[in-house]
Amino acid sequence: MPYDRLRRRLTESGSPTVTTLPDGSVDHFCTVAEDDAESPETRDAFGREILGDRSSFSFAVEATEPGGQAVNAAKQLHALGGSVTCYGHLDAPVFESLPFDTVSMGAPAVVYVFGFSDRDVMFVEAADVAEWTLAEVRRVADLPDVFGGDAVCCSNWDSVAGLESAFHRLSDADVPRIPFVFDPGDIVGCGPDEIGALLDAMAALQDAFDVVYSANRQEVRATAAPLSGPFDHDLARLAAIRAETGVTAAVMHARDEAAAAVTSDDRLRVSNYSVERPVRHTGGGDRFTGGLGHALACGWDWDVALACGNACAVSYVESGSTGGPNEVAAFLDERPPVDS
Questions:
Q1: Within 10 A of 170 (CB to CB), how many other CB atoms are there?
Q2: Among 52, 27, 72, 80, which Cα is nearest to 329's?
Q3: Which of 58, 90, 178, 293 has the fewest C-beta atoms lying within 10 Å of its C-beta?
Q4: What pLDDT shows up at residue 291?
Q5: Which SS3 state, helix, strand or coil, does residue 301 take?
Q6: How big is the CA angle at 189 (ends 105 and 270), to the nearest 5 degrees?
Q7: In angstroms, rounded to a whole number, what is the distance separating the alpha carbons of residues 130 and 311?
Q8: Tens digit of pLDDT for each residue in 3-51?
Q9: Could you tell me if 322 and 287 are in contact, meaning their C-beta atoms sit under 8 angstroms apart?
Q10: Measuring CA to CA, how many Å separate 294 from each of 16, 83, 154, 178, 331?
C-alpha cells in the first residue's frame, strides 16, 4: 500500500533543495456579510442571490495571507523539511512572514476568496506582469542557482505571460536534468491554439528537464481536448498528453484520486481520502504540487509520490493548515485504509 510506505518515508524524509516560481498574490479570505439574513452557504445559493433582485453585497475580510500557487507549493515543501526558494511576484509586506527564502520579481496579484461549503469563488485583481522572461530571472539570480537543485515546481501558465517563451529558451539551458513539476493553473476555456502552444512548450522543456505535468481533472480534460480521441477515461487522456509531448509523466489530482501516466505502459491510480467538512478549498491543489515535488526530489516511487500529494492536499483542506511530516503521518494514522 503506498500510504503505508509513505508513513515510513515521512519519518526519514530528507531536505531536498527545491525552487518554486513564478507568481504570488495577497489573498484576502472573505465571507458575504448579511445583517438581516443568513449568508449563502453554497456557490449555487450565492449565484441565485446575484441573479436575484439585489444589486449590492457587503463582505468581511476574515484573514489576509501570502498566496499564489508558487507560494502555496513552497509552504508545503518547507513544511516537509525542504530547502525552498520561491521566485515570484512578492513585493508586499505580507510576504515578509514566510519562513523560507524568497526572491521578488515584481508586484503580486490581489485575490479575494469567498469560501462556501462546496467550493470557493475567487475574484482576482491580476498583477501587471508584462512578460516573465529568463532575462528577468537573470536580473535577480544565476540560472544554475534557480534550476540547479533537486526539483522545480512551476505554476500558473494561464496568468503569467512569458512562460511559453521561457520554456522554449530553457530547452537548451545548461542545467541539471531534474524533476520539473508543472501545474498550468486554470486553463479551462483556453482555445485549441492556446492548448497547442502549451503542449509545444512542454515538449521543448522536456529537452532540459524531467517534466511532470500536473493538473486537476477539468484541466486534464481541457489539455487533452485537441488531441486524437475519443477517450473513455482520464488515464487515457493522461497517456495521450504524455505521448504528444514526450514529458516524463502526466499527472491528475482530483478529490477522489491521483493518477499518472509514467510510461507508455505504466499507468497508476492512488485513491484519495474523503473530507466531509472542509475548512479550506483554495490551495489544496498547490499542496498536492508541493507534496509531489518533495517526493520526486527525494527519489520516491511514483505511487508513493502520488500518495504524498494526496495526503498533503487533503490534510490541508480538512485542517486549513499546511502539514509537516508529523502532521501528515498523524492524519494518515487517524484514517482507515483506502483501496489504492
A1: 22
A2: 80
A3: 58
A4: 98
A5: coil
A6: 85
A7: 36
A8: 999 999 998 878 999 999 999 999 998 888 765 566 777 778 787 777 8
A9: yes
A10: 7, 10, 13, 12, 18
For the entire predicted model, the pTM comes to: 0.92
Locate cell 522545480: which residue? 152
Do 183 and 155 contact (CB within 8 A), yes or no?
yes
209-241 burial, b for 16+ CB within 10 Å, e for fewer?
bbbbbbbbbebbebbbebbeeebeebbebbbbb
The three grid cell numbers given for residue 103, joined into one nine-digit string: 526572491
Residue 125: strand pairing partners: 110
CA–CA separation, 302 and 231 (whole Å): 24
Q: In one letter, which amino acid is 270?
A: V
Is a pLDDT exceeding 70 seen at residue 128? no
103 SS3 class: strand
Nine-digit cell at 146? 534557480
Q: What is the pLDDT of residues 152-184, one digit of tens each?
A: 999 989 888 889 999 999 999 999 999 999 999
CA distance 332 to 340: 14
Report the alpha-carbon distance of residue 61 to residue 179 in Å, rounded.
38
Residue 311, pLDDT above cutoff 80: yes
Picking from 214, 311, 243, the residue whose alpha carbon sits closest to that of residue 271 is: 311
Q: Which parts of the chain fold into alpha helices (H)?
A: 2-11, 43-51, 69-79, 134-140, 143-147, 163-170, 192-205, 217-224, 234-245, 284-297, 302-319, 325-333
Q: For the chain, how many residues are written? A: 340
